[in-house]
Protein 1
Amino acid sequence: MSLTSRIKGLEGDAMTEFSNFQTIPEYYGENVFSLKTMRNYLSDKAFSSLSKTITDGGKVDPKIADEVADAMKTWAVSKGATHYTHWFQPLTGSTAEKHDSFITPDGEGSCLLKFSGEELIQGEPDASSFPSGGLRPTFEARGYTGWDPTSPAFIKEGPQGATLCIPTYFVGWHGEALDKKTPLLRSMKALTSQVERLAKILGIKSKQRAYATLGGEQEYFLIDRDFYYQRIDLVQTGRTLFGKEPAKHQQMADHYFGAIKDRVIEFMEDLDREMWRLGAPIKTRHNEVAPGQYEVAPIFENQNLAVDHNLLTMEVMQKVAQKHGLACLLHEKPFHGVNGSGKHNNWSVTGPDGKNWLSPGDNPHENERFLIMLCAVIKAVDTHAGLLRAAIASAGNDHRLGSHEAPPAIISVYLGEQLTDIIEQIEKGGKAKSTKAGGVLEVGVDSLPSLPRHASDRNRTSPFAFTGAKFEFRAVGSNQSLSGPNIILNAAVTQALDEICTKLEKVSKKDLNKTVQKTLQKIIQDHKRVIFNGDNYTQEWVKEAKKRGLPNLKTTPEALKATQDPAAAKMFEKYGILSQKELQSRNEIYVETYDTIIGYEGALMVDMARTLILPAALEYSEGLAETIRSVESVSKTKMTSSRTLLKDVAKYTEEAIEGANKLETALKGSSTVKMRAAMAELREAVDTLEGLVPAESWPLPSYAEMLFIS
Ligand code: ADP
Ligand code: MG
């Protein structure tokens, strides 16, 4: 049967669906004011000026601002937009927006729709309630949002209308960064300039600006929305504060990469479509290890855009889930005892030659460029391991790091056997004989033994792994903005490249190769302690890492201390990424956020224990006691085991009551360590009770119910 006759054969709804069918290219990016859209809406002059700003950086020509704003408005209105908003990223870690409508009364009882260049370029939301960590005293509480033309404006559709969203940075009166985008853009600029400097030294021709690339893999859980609403802990804190592990969860690994259930695939299809409409290059979707856990990943992009797209993905995921009667959980550890969720941060650099500089390549030139980048990253990670750990520190991620197939809190680098072999040869001196690769290895002269892509990466336990042509920072939490870790990575690699370039610039062309060899040799000697190819989940590694002097910062408060290191402040200051004050403000905000989260989680546990769980446990004890009494009196048998059961229920009920009291006392103090210990104690008593009290009397949906979507 031909296609047309098959279509003709379809009836009613199916026919309509078929004729409304659009291929991806037809709707991809339709909600983005992309270069392609701009070309249709802008004059040639304005278009070429703006596109140059976007690709090369620099300031927007104020002369074109009005035209661009008007074009954006016209396009947005044609998409149903009534409002615009500066979409920004305050230090809360999520995104913020305040909407303004386009209307301007015309004085005759009607209105015009207007949007000026001034409004596009700068906004002044009354944003005094965002955390500023003392950067912005209340008397000058103004915060300004400024247009970031390198991330395109987009349309956010609401239930009945639409809003034009303009990605912006957010700064205070004196230009101090109040957000996560500003330092990210600054760090990207710093990195670009060092990469271009190195290109010049190496004689690499420049075709374009260098830039960092990023692909963020996002893990998440889906549960039925009814269960979600029945769990006040999930609604309020994003994680289950109580909950007994189900008998079967992920032991069989039968969920991982398994066939995707219909209800879930419907969600995924919808999510993909919405993200494609927003021009985000979503590529993969699959089931993750834990039941109810999934992953979505894009194709990598320019770092700034990738961060924005990840934030947008997180937002759209929640909305789409709601539409499907599901709740999307982005917390790092929504369920105790099963895998948590991370966000793998795939990072690399595209040089001014347009090539990926972490791709080993196969000619001497590429080899040299690659090995310098590789060593720069090793040096960067070892020097600033504490800062990298701090960048991923959060109350949520603390539950994940170091447990159940999550990378440990010790930051180390995985290179794989082949690269380690090469690194060891460089360490011994350029002329060392290669045993594994065969032949003589001399940086930049002989070519690298060919490295089949992905051949080496079978180590899933490393927090920072080289995976073929990029580094993958796996310790990032699923709920975190990608800005933080990328700011630190960019900064640390910038510093390493700066030091390398300073050495290389001093020598003549003739001696360049020798100097590269020597410089890399020294870097490896100094920083090889950070390289670890073994199993990061073992106790032996914890011991070994200690011997090597690598920091093991287990909790957020410990990790955040790394931001107080004077060397960190010096680096951020030197490369214009964060001033001492800006750095300090972040430290203050993150410490306070951590304390706040522990505080409200603890308080909610006390409430839930007293008002939900204990009444159920007490009622069950009462019923059980009554049953034993009446059965014994009638049957004249002593119910020894039932009495033991009653004793157990009574015992854990008492423990839970005491636990709640103890936690309440701890919450009045200031030690989060004591609070966490009391939380764990209370949880243990309650989770034990959950295994004793009849399911129908238990006031919360169980893990088994929530984790297995049907
Ligand atoms: P893996 O098998 O190691 O997970 P994939 O090829 O599936 O590798 O990529 C995982 C993520 O890494 C994707 O988001 C991908 O786009 C991203 N990625 C690949 N190359 C680069 C690069 N050069 N820079 C940044 N991210 C990259
Ligand atoms: Mg990965």
Note: Residues 267 and 324 are 6 Å apart (CA to CA).
Protein 2
Amino acid sequence: MKVICTEKSQVLATQLARALKTTVVDVNYSRFPDGEHYLRAGDIDDEMVIVGSVTDNDALVQLMLLADACDRAENRLVLPYMAYARQDKRFHDGEPISSRVVARALSQGVSDVITVNIHDRTVLESFSVPAQDISLAPDVGAYIGTLNLKNPLILAPDDGAMDFAGQVAKAGGWDCDHLEKTRLSGTEVKMAPKKLSAKARSVVIVDDIISTGGTIATAAGMLYREGAKDVSAACVHGVFTGGAYARLAATGIRDIVCSDTIERGCSRIPAAARIADALKKRR
Ligand code: R5P
């Protein structure tokens, strides 16, 4: 077995290869003069683990090209982050179900797929090969444990993220709650923990994705106004689009971290060990 990866998932792929006690195949990536992607892979094994987060359209194309370059091997696909997964239904007439389009395209030439905290597990059904999702919630919890916060309150930004937050909180036996929006007037909205008070407490807001950072920035502002001692944020997929990290930091958030499903300067939660375990279990 060898590992092969897209350009933007090189660090995670290298750590995964180490965890699997194998190597990463060297790939030359370049472009044709018209911008089309080109790649050429080195020595391919009979069994290949193709690793690449769909962070953008270039990564999506590289993944499809890698699967074809390895077409004489048995290919297992690891998608640490899957963009387009949030368009998992037709919200309006005329829209595509983008998650289905991407899942179908990435099923070509692979025998199975592993995703990490995919936005909605129903997307797994759109792959035409067996697909499973693994969760880094315990790893997010383990990271929070290293912050040595006194009796932290783990908060989900909404009811939908409560399951994830509950798994994070379980790692340290911490309190867990979710934020609830209450409309005070036509223009005023209050956001506060549903059951527990954040007053004088260290709060960690946890979510699967931080994209624009809007959800967490609003929540952090409200929590500070309600007297939280400090607010931190941890997520699996640090998309941080449009300057989101800097904007969040400016709200006074103490610590903003993500995993390395998308490789960032604040990637402090490694995903390799858990992905390696999932790959070994299915062999
Ligand atoms: C939504 O369902 C997700 O779980 C995240 O809460 C959302 O993607 C965060 O987006 P943003 O950072 O843009 O507020």
Note: The first strand starts at residue 2 and ends at 5.
Protein 3
Amino acid sequence: MKNLQAIRGMNDVLPDRSPAWQYLEQQMRVLFDRYGYREVRTPVVEDTALFKRSIGEVTDIVEKEMYTFADRNDESLTLRPEGTAGVVRAAIQHGLLHNQIQKLWYTGAMFRYERPQKGRYRQFHQFGAEIFGLEGPDIDAELIIMTARLWQQLGIAEHLRLELNTLGTAASRGRYRDDLVAFLRTHEARLDEDSRRRLETNPLRILDSKNPDTQSILNDAPDFMDYIDDESAAHFSVLCAQLDQAGVSYRVNPRLVRGLDYYGRTVFEWITDALGAQGTVLGGGRYDALVEQLGGKPVPAIGFGMGVERLLLLLETLGVVPESVFTTVDAYLISMGEDADMALLPLAERIREANPTLRLQTHLGGGGFKSKMKKADRSGARLALILGEDELQQQVFTVKDLRTGEDQYELAWNDSARLTAALNNE
Ligand code: ATP
Ligand code: MG
């Protein structure tokens, strides 16, 4: 019989690594709290039409990356490939956008049928933020400043750089697109196959082609800055000034376009060189037209999506996940002898009752003293609490500090203060 395996590109997070995930999740929650964001949770599955209408019919995601299936009722459903569309759908559906500012965040699994490789998976996870009801550019600046603070908080600021661009309004983009297509047609023979196809479908995406030949053709292409509308240009220059004021450095990259159709005006990416080709850790931008496009009254909006796996890879590569998060047990309780074995579980409950934050592991499954102590050590616990027949009589346990080699000593069962001190003192 064939062994059952996880689906290609979909990963298990095993207990050795889950503390790193929890660490990052905790950091994200704290960050969002500090900036006044509230969490929103939306379903993993949505109507396929939602993604087609928002992300765009001729984007890579919709053309070839979605997990789409017919349910038993023959409705076309899709596992969400990103978070924004669902959040916008929920915000419209539940009336969250009527004359209100919403600062929302989400996290969860996303699904894309891509070629699995380092930093690119078929089920991956994102944290994201979406802000509704603010035209910017002050919120654009604050959102970016918040992400810069995240890198500070995680101790990786010098390994990430910010790229920034503006895509103007749909009208200015349209005029530019026409001229870009006209220009590229004159070089069509030299374009790579992907770019030739995009000439018909999504020409702006050619700007961020990875093909060096295509990039060199683009050196002589029309410059979007010559097409941008005045309001978008002013928006962008205030954003840049606010980032300068805040001391956030960036590079304006006129070829940064992002892969989703709903973006306009501000777009940005945080990129690292430490992960090879999959270097974009966080990407976002403004999507002022999307709410209306999905059936709501027009509401300006901006957001970002951040890849959890990529950020964790980066944290692990740089060795900046604090060692302490991998310790998940404080004390390991061992019994020796029949009566002590019987007393173990009730005593453990008593200790938990008196020490609500103590992470206590009981030794279960029998064995000799030596093997029990070995397991205590391997658990990562600071203290072994040993309950033998004598200790049982005297209502104490023998405490062995597994990390300092300090002499063992006896501790009364109800002496929570000394137990806490023993865990906290060096
Ligand atoms: P890329 O250019 O790397 O394909 P993208 O433009 O498709 O990224 P978005 O759709 O904006 O990315 O998603 C935001 C973030 O989510 C990315 O910057 C990345 O960190 C992460 N991400 C996107 N696709 C994947 C994937 N298949 N596996 C893991 N992380 C991903
Ligand atoms: Mg992609």
Note: The chain has 15 helices and 16 strands.
Protein 4
Amino acid sequence: MKVLLTGGAGFMGSNMIRFLLNKYDHAQVVNVDKLTYAGNLDNLKDIVGHPRYTFVKGDIADEATVENVFRQHRPEVVLNYAAETHVDRSILDPKAFIMTDVVGTFTLLEAARQHGVKRFVQISTDEVFGSTADGQFTEATAFDPSSPYSASKAGADHLVRAYWRTYRTPTVVTHSCNFFGPYEYPEKLIPLFITNLLEGKKVPVYGDGRQVREWIYVPDHCRAVDAVMTAGQPGEVYNIGTGERLANIDVTRKILTILELSENMIDYVPDRPGHDLRYAIDSTKLRNELGWAPTRSFDQGLASTVRWYRENEWWWRKIKKGEYLEYYRQQYGRKT
Ligand code: NAD
Ligand code: TYD
């Protein structure tokens, strides 16, 4: 099985490469990654030199790069993880989101159509559905994105669905709740808060912290994408969710408890513009049709994640020294 996995130097892509190489003796993985601020070859340190792994530094929105990869490696499966992914960055600077998430996905789809692939899996988010006060998003819920990030992902997902309807390119889309676990760039809620606290810094809770997110731990997400890749039906859409829905303030309190710190470490800061109040995803289809179910609770995943960040300071300290600080100064006008 020849897999082209894009964005494999990022958080979830790197975890998935490790999963695929471990699970399938016959899997060959080509990772195309632009190495943006979020792409980090340290995430793949243990994979470098693996006989079934190839890295190509490149932009998925660049036709020539994508064409060369398809010609040279003849992928049967495309797993499109590459994206600009952080909502706050999309608010400050949306252009890169359009270029990668929309144009990049389009460029991959065109190559997949022209060269023929057995499966094109688009790794997408529940954020395309907008916010729901008390309901759950199903696969049929209409897109209603709030941020430039979710609007870009929604644009890409429309194209992915259209390529099946128009050209019969065998695409599948996954809409997942929030991931968390090892190698997540410390700008997202969970890794930012854990690393700030390990550094003795406060954690910036947006608004009143009552916004709700649904959470999935890394290995369960890898298993879900594997199920969709191998058994998902072309043209179909699968929601990935655990039912574990928590207010941000409760996630924050759980992290504080694990680290034996008090609520004095919370800094309530101005809310994110257009902040979605609640995400909740109905994953019945994935469970009933593909037999998937999560194996770890949020609490188990969080304890393992805190342990990983504690044991891998070398990984995140390097990142926090760099461009990251400038970004947070710009956003909050202060040092974090
Ligand atoms: P990430 O930000 O950690 O990594 C993104 C990777 O994509 C980086 O390695 C980056 O270098 C690469 N990249 C960016 N632009 C590129 C381009 N033009 N060409 C090639 N590579 C490029 O992302 P993540 O959190 O691991 O998310 C992976 C995917 O999952 C994304 O598509 C995201 O929309 C989706 N998703 C994420 C979450 C979440 O909670 N993080 C939830 C649902 C869906
Ligand atoms: P985030 O991890 O950025 O993921 P997403 O916005 O894609 O869901 O944020 C998760 C939630 O945490 C979201 O409601 C915003 C909130 N949040 C904070 O309160 N403070 C922070 O510093 C960050 C990064 C997020």
Note: The pocket of nicotinamide-adenine-dinucleotide (ligand 1) is lined by residues 6-7, 9-13, 32-36, 38-39, 59-61, 81-85, 100, 104, 123-125, 153, 176, 178-179, 185 (CB under 6 Å).
